[in-house]
Amino acid sequence: MNHFICNTCGVQYPKTTNPPDTCLICSDERQYIHPDGQSWTTLETLNDSGNYRNSIVTEEPGLYSITTTPGYAIGQTAYLLQNQGFNLLWDCITYLDERTENEIKALGGIDAIALSHPHYYSTQVEWAERFGASIYIHEADRQWVTRPSDSIIFWSGDSLELDEGVTLYRLGGHFNGGSVLHWEHDVNKQGLLLTGDIIQVVADRQWVSFMYSYPNLIPLPAIKVQEMADKVNTLHFDRLYNAFHRIIKENAHQSVQKSAKRYIAALEGKLVHMI
Q: Which are the contacts of 235, defined by CB distance < 8 A and separation ≥ 6?
């Protein structure tokens, strides 16, 4: 029996003799079944292939990015945040090997794992078991958990402080439980927001966007985008990191607010440069 992993999204399933018929995550309209059809692997197979390696990079004091090369599945980046002795893994990646485990343990390990939304659940239970960490998922996304575990804590409401100055905020949007992480006491004391792709940094790094489905280009309604912008407007943050290593390095708070206004103007046909 194996914990099968979907090759398209990288999410792991409970132990079975045969792989599932289809992936719960990819059959949803926010994701997609690969044009070549549904395919599966296991973490052991990925490890044994020798094809993958995780790169752990210091982004700024107390914040490390963790990325698999070459890219696997969705290809997101996870972040390890260090807050005065409390280590948090923000979002998760599928690939995990002994080398990665040892490097992270040398950085103090992982006390908790927090997820922005189901596309990044990946092998979160494997990570939790290796490091003895709890997993925090908003209860609104309970139905998307493909591998149940006693390590998972379903939180409720609009916010949850995991450690002093480290707080989850539920924004919804991309998923009902879609969440971002606010780090208030970063070394620069200017505040930092980790957003997955609940708020997505775009090619022009002065701007962000908001979507119901990114691969299928389904937008969110104006009222929801305004609600999301209003929720983060009360937070103090200067930098913003998304799930694909795109970073707004300054004035991120202003970027989110002006981007929401532009998005809503586009939906309402009011962009100045529209033909």
A: 169, 182, 191, 193, 253
Q: What is the Cα–Cα distance from 157 to 100, expressed in whole angstroms?
A: 34
Quick check: 275 pLDDT over 80?
A: no
Take residue 25 and report the two structure tokens written for it. Answer: 């995550």
Q: What is the extent of the structural domain holding 172?
A: 2-42+51-267
Q: What are phi and psi of 51, to 5 degrees?
A: -90, -20
| Within a domain: 274 | no
With beta carbons less than 8 A apart as the criterion, state whether 242 and 76 touch.
no
Question: How many other CB atoms are there within 10 angstroms of residue 160's CB atom?
Answer: 17
Contact 2, 42 (CB under 8 A): yes
Sequence-separated (6 or more) residues with CB below 8 Å from residue 211: 174, 197, 200, 217, 218, 219, 220
The whole-number pLDDT of residue 235 equals 97
What is the band of 144 on the pLDDT scale with cuts at 50, 70, 90?
A: very high
**119 DSSP 8-state letter:** G
For 157-186, write each residue's pLDDT tens digit: 999 999 999 999 999 999 999 999 999 988
Contacts of 182 (CB under 8 A, 6+ apart): 166, 167, 168, 169, 191, 192, 193, 235, 237
Residues of the chain with pLDDT > 90: what percent?
A: 96
User: Given this model, what pLDDT does residue 270 score?
Assistant: 87
**Does residue 215 sit in helix, strand or coil?**
coil
Structural domain contains residue 219:
yes
